[in-house]
Amino acid sequence: MPDQAFTGTHPSPGQPVDELALAEIKGAILGKLRLAIGKDAGMATRHDWYMATALALRDRIVHRWLSVEKQSYDAGRKRVYYLSLEFLIGRLFTDALNNMGLMPVFEAALGDLGVGLSDLRKCEPDAALGNGGLGRLAACFMESMATLSIPAIGYGIRYHFGLFRQIISHGWQQEYPDEWLRLGNPWELQRPEVVYLVHFGGSVEHVDDKGRDRAIWHPGETVQAMAYDTPIVGWRGQYVNALRLWSAQSPDPLNLDVFNSGDYLGASAEQARAEAICKFLYPNDESPAGRELRLRQEYFFVSASLQDLVKRHLSSDGQLRSLAMKAAVQLNDTHPSLAVAELMRILVDLHNFRWEEAWKITVATLSYTNHTLLPEALETWPVELFERLLPRHLEIIYRINSIHLALAEARYPGDIDFRASVSLIDERSGRRVRMGQLAFVGCHRINGVSAMHSELMQDTVFHDLHHLYPGRITNKTNGITFRRWLMVANPKLTELLREICGEAVLDDPSRLELLEARASDHAFQQQFRKVKHHNKTMLARLISERLDVLVDPAALFDVQIKRIHEYKRQLLNILEAIALYQAIRDEPQKDWVPRVKIFAGKAAASYRFAKLIIKLINDVAAIVNNDPVVAGRLKIVFLPDYNVSLAEVIIPAADLSEQISTAGMEASGTGNMKLALNGAITIGTLDGANIEIRDHVGADNIAIFGMEAMDVTVRRKQGLDATDAIRRSPRLSRAINAIGAGAFSPDDPDRFASIAHALRNLDYYMVSADFDSYHAAQRGIDARWQVQPAWTRASILNVARMAFFSSDRTIREYAEEIWNVPVRPAPTPTLSAQRGLAGG
């Protein structure tokens, strides 16, 4: 295969395509169409063309992948293993074309064959193997690790169905299976020879082995984990890593005796039980069966992944004492916390390490990223369930806890409350294993994902553990990959940036600061607004196609796109929209700023209150959008089935980014970074990475409102009744009364009574308490919008000052400060970057 297929060059728009490369790509696509798909060009469907093109591209990626894999093993390089229950990778086709520098030649080749590249992009299903920011962060990190030439493998589960497909029917969310694998997946390579046995249940036998207690686990059930590898391409195609996803199957998929007896369904029962592990992301855990399945999922992928990395290490190094020197294992949130107990089991039970040495290796190898301060998200499991499903691991956790509590007693003698606080077993509410504590004790570094979040970890959920193990907590503020969230999602803005900042901006985000000199330039502002208007027109067309709602691209596009949760406060947003609607009706002659409020996001299937908020948004939209008095000056839309591909359309079109979580509850956020990078101005609380965004873009270029984290804590201690806040705010009182009285649900006046009750009496998320501050900030946004040169200047400065939020920077910090692995040198920063943070 010619080397030119791997140059990774990125031609400027309009640059001619090399004719030899063009002919080669056309031949490759036609060859795949005939030999891999079994069709000729005259019979091929659009999906056939997509599969053939993707396979032709994959060949070029695999060539690079195998080369760098061999080089890294030959050099004995330390590897990173990233364990995550979620990888929200989205569509890979355009991402890979862009990173390989092959977009122009593939587009030209397909054009010569009579096929449109943009049509093929839509054929690829959106791989929704994640729920939101956690999974999308993992995907960004995998791309950045490849970009920085860090040998890495991402480990997760190959879910048969991704996060549910969301349908909005009569305003209500309905969930349907997301059949992303139905038509095949050209990116994955099945590895049928890579199979590991994962055990559950049974009993543990202890025998005396030359004076040492040796545990032998006799499992009651065995499941096979088979590997599927997806190549993840780094920028310019110079490095490729693997995302290895595990699929579950039974060692005996069909019981022939049972089948031949006539029980055809029963004959496949074991296979169905095994496959349930990888059937669906986040099964409903309200039932005991759902909770058991969640724990089975977590252990299944942790065990398979650790077995795989230990085997890799032994094949290259020969012994496990050097594991921490050659392997860095990152646990993405609490879901893989079982890695602590499983690695100890592998070392002690299977490789005969003494406990003390195994523990040193385990702690030195593992590190843990915490993503939340919400107690319900710091997983705990009933001891009874653990004992039944993972009896040997419970023994190991008990022993870890015994040594850990002895340290606590030595440090703080007689302090029973302290020992209870740091214990791996919660004895207070039915004995439960605390997975967050297990990860903290078993890892050498624990990081938060924004400066504020890391500080709050030390002050709240891990306060006592921080005192017992000082120095373990560190901060690694999240980041995003600019390749997808700028270059792929917003090609017209990228063209403009290349023109102003030079081609080097594609490799060096700090060059974005060269925009600052143009921020007030009238001609450049016009170019910038033209790009934004184009993106808004594209989104308006999508809204019209999907919802049959017409919106004006000249209006202010006000965007809140994230998982539906009370702490993210979509309720505050729609409550303020109701107040605005009522104000417009009161004074229709006033010069109101036209505004389109755009919502998207999924509520967990069992989260009834969140689903009721979706219904409220849709019911309010139905009335507002059809009210002739409002005359289109306010439109409200809820775009269903939010995913990565939809985000790629919404984000470049956003004028205003809603980051309005209750202060102290959003660990970081990454949507806030994507929106600001694309020129949206943030309205938000001082929460998560909003604080760092403010510090970088300048306080004049962001709209901050509401209580701070300590204010929220004090307010909650005083009580959750919002009567005083409502009494002081006539507009808030009126909006809540309208919700409670059925103004937006005339067919069922009591539909939203629980929401009105919560706003009045159970204001845990400070929606009512923050309403007036939020309302005032929104009117400030209206005033800013009416002075377009000033608005555009602030929008440009948001783009110019976002370099810090690249996931390349985040991964570089992980590599240097947690993993101890070398990375590709960073580009030399621009002069303004060297001077430090930009001013206002």
Provide structural commentary.
The structure is a single chain. With 840 residues, the chain is an alpha/beta fold. It has 3 domains: 1-75 and 94-125, no CATH class; 76-91 and 126-475, Glycogen Phosphorylase B (Rossmann fold), CATH 3.40.50; 482-510 and 521-805 and 812-833, Glycogen Phosphorylase B (Rossmann fold), CATH 3.40.50.2000. It has 34 helices and 24 strands. The strands form 6 sheets. Strands 7-10-11-4-1-12-13-17-18 form a 9-stranded mixed β-sheet. 49% of the residues are buried.
In short:
It contains 34 helices and 24 strands.
Number of domains: 3
Structural Rg = 27 Å
Largest β sheet strand count, sense and barrel closure: 9 strands, mixed
CATH class of the largest domain: Alpha Beta
Morphology: globular
Number of helices: 34
Termini, distance in Å?
A: 52 Å
Strand line-up of the largest beta sheet? 7-10-11-4-1-12-13-17-18
Low-confidence stretches: 1-9, 831-840
Strand content: 15-25%
Structural class: alpha/beta
Write the layout of secondary structure elements.
Blueprint: H1 19-35, H2 46-74, E1 79-83, E2 87-90, H3 93-100, H4 103-112, H5 117-121, E3 127-129, H6 133-147, E4 152-157, E5 162-169, E6 172-178, E7 189-200, E8 203-209, E9 212-218, E10 221-233, E11 240-249, H7 256-260, H8 269-275, H9 288-317, H10 323-326, E12 327-332, H11 339-350, H12 355-365, E13 366-369, E14 380-382, H13 383-389, H14 391-411, H15 416-422, E15 425-426, E16 432-434, H16 435-442, E17 445-448, H17 451-459, H18 463-468, E18 473-475, H19 482-488, H20 491-501, H21 522-547, E19 556-561, H22 570-586, E20 595-600, H23 608-624, E21 634-639, H24 644-653, E22 656-659, H25 671-677, E23 681-684, H26 690-697, E24 703-704, H27 709-718, H28 723-727, H29 730-740, H30 753-761, H31 767-785, H32 788-800, H33 807-819, H34 831-834
Parallel strand pairs: 1-4, 1-12, 4-11, 12-13, 13-17, 17-18, 19-20, 19-22, 20-21, 22-23, 23-24
Antiparallel strand pairs: 2-3, 5-6, 7-10, 8-9, 10-11, 14-16, 15-16
Helix pairs in contact: 1-2, 1-4, 3-19, 6-33, 9-11, 11-12, 11-14, 13-14, 21-24, 21-32, 22-23, 22-29, 22-31, 29-30
